[in-house]
Amino acid sequence: YLIVIFLFSGLLIYSVFMPLDFIFLQAGLPLIQTFVVLINITINIVLNYFLIPIFGLYGAAISTSLSLIFSGLNLFIFMYFYKLILKYWLIKHFSSILFFLLIHINY
After folding, report:
1. 90 close to 34: Cβ distance less than 8 angstroms
2. C-alpha of 55 from chain center
3. Exposed, middle or buried: residue 65 (CB in 10 Å: 0-12, 13-18, 19+)?
4. Is residue 67 a contact partner of residue 47, using CB atoms and an 8 Å limit?
5. CA–CA gap between residue 76 and residue 17 (Å, rounded)
């Protein structure tokens, strides 16, 4: 059960930032989105390298959760850096984020 809790917590936090992933593509910046994905893959590989030998399967779950959290934070930082937060995220995706959060709260 602990592994599922680790994975669920990472996915729950990442689900708040998930709509940000497509805004770079909508804004015509696919290279930035690719760069963010490469950073996230690197973080996941490094965390897996250090945590799996120590904690085994729990380390894999922890590293995946931490990777998802860092992934969401990276998206938010890059969106803020490119000033796309105010243009797209708050205007276009506020209703979808609210709907997504309501679904998670109800279940």
Report:
1. no
2. 23
3. buried
4. yes
5. 7
- What does the pLDDT read at residue 95? 64
Query: Which residue's entry shows tokens 């990777």?
Result: 67
Task: Report pLDDT digits (tens) over 43-59.
Answer: 999 999 999 999 999 99
Q: Which DSSP state fits 70?
A: H
- In this structure, the number of other CB atoms found within 10 A of the CB of residue 70 comes to 17
- The encoded tokens of residue 33 equal 């989105």
Residue 93 identity (one-letter amino acid):
H
Q: What is the mean pLDDT of each run of 10 residues along the chain (107 residues)?
A: 89 83 78 85 93 94 92 84 61 63 63
- Residue 18 and residue 45: Cα distance in Å, rounded? 20
